[in-house]
Amino acid sequence: MNPSLDKLQPYPFQKLATLKAGVTPPEELNHIPLSIGEPKHKTPVFIRDALHDNLHGVATYSATKGTPELRQAITDWLIKRYDLPPESLDIERHVLPVNGTREALFAFAQAAVDASRQPQVLMPNPFYQIYEGAALLAGAEPVFLSCTDENNFLPDFDGISPGTWKRCQLLYLCSPGNPTGAVADMATLQRLINLAEEHDFIIASDECYSEIYLDEENPPPGLLQAAAEMGNTEYRRCIVFNSLSKRSSVPGLRSGFVAGDADLINPFFLYRTYHGCAMPTHHQAASIKAWSDEQHAEENRSLYRKKLEAAHDILYDVLPVERAAAGFYLWPETPVSDTEFARGLFAQQNVTVLPGSFLSREVDGMNPGSHRVRMALVAPLDECVEAAERIKTFIKSL
């Protein structure tokens, strides 16, 4: 077997299961999971109908590149959402449908990294563990860039050494961030594009939380938008990943896209023809409907805002919880260690949260997720309110 498999750490939820083992929460309290970022809002009926109405597609193989209609719907959405020059995006050259961003974020590193040159792959810390696994199995060394409150939960790009930039082949960026909700502004994105040109690396921007934000008038900027505004309408060294899972509450649809630099998309497409990962045609039909409608995405954001506001109002006087600009997570500091907090909360209140240290790696003796927990406000409003009340009760008992 590939010896790099031995370098993979247990997934955060495996660690969480071990942490909770042997604990019996109160039977009279229903379990409220805030640990997994799996949307629980109802999938819009028109998306389900499109799936049902196109089931005849299971009788044929689907193309790796997807249908022209799906690529056009994605392209139209990108142009409208980020105000991109229409002529800068070609459905044949710049866009590929993928089965959710998770598989694409992993696969892209396998296609992009040259393992013969002692590569490094940079990523935020805390982070989505797929980035680390992708780097390791591509033969690269992961480099963790700690995101702390001192730096507004964004990586300190000023602190990266010239030697690291020289070895960097791929930079994973996550904006809005998981779990912090931090948003990289336009200046930061454009600075990274300039650094990529200077040091010869690729930026892989995970933007799957881009459509969950608080201010309807100020959506988070995207990497392609930043490139276009600085005149880089070929999107050199820029590749973005996005998904319908959060935007449209269809995590089981496994539908997303990769878009950007045609010189990156083309070889990645070749890789994917061998990878065998074409999206089923009925999923493509439903995806076209989803990318073409904004009303349901606006309604989805409204639901998350209500939950985030409600949880904040309940917790703010007992827990230093800040309202992030985007995403559906809370990332508060804990009065005891994050693992003690998570285990005790489950034992006393039957609420599950994810210890922040499980989402991070220790760098220079410090784990940036330590003494923090991730709370995913994906449950219905009433459950999120009840969970917040139980968390408040637990904190008062400490």
TrEMBL record:
User: What highest taxon heads this organism's lineage?
Assistant: Bacteria
Biological process per Gene Ontology, one example term: lysine biosynthetic process via diaminopimelate
As cofactor, the record names:
pyridoxal 5'-phosphate
Domain (Aminotransferase class I/classII large): give its ranges. 32-390
What UniProt keywords are attached to this protein's entry? Aminotransferase, Transferase
A Pfam family annotated for this chain is Aminotran_1_2
The record's section on SUPFAM superfamilies has: PLP-dependent transferases (SSF53383)
List the molecular function annotations (GO) for this entry: pyridoxal phosphate binding; succinyldiaminopimelate transaminase activity
Q: What is the protein name for this chain?
A: Succinyldiaminopimelate transaminase
Q: Which taxonomic lineage is given here?
A: Bacteria, Pseudomonadati, Pseudomonadota, Gammaproteobacteria, sulfur-oxidizing symbionts
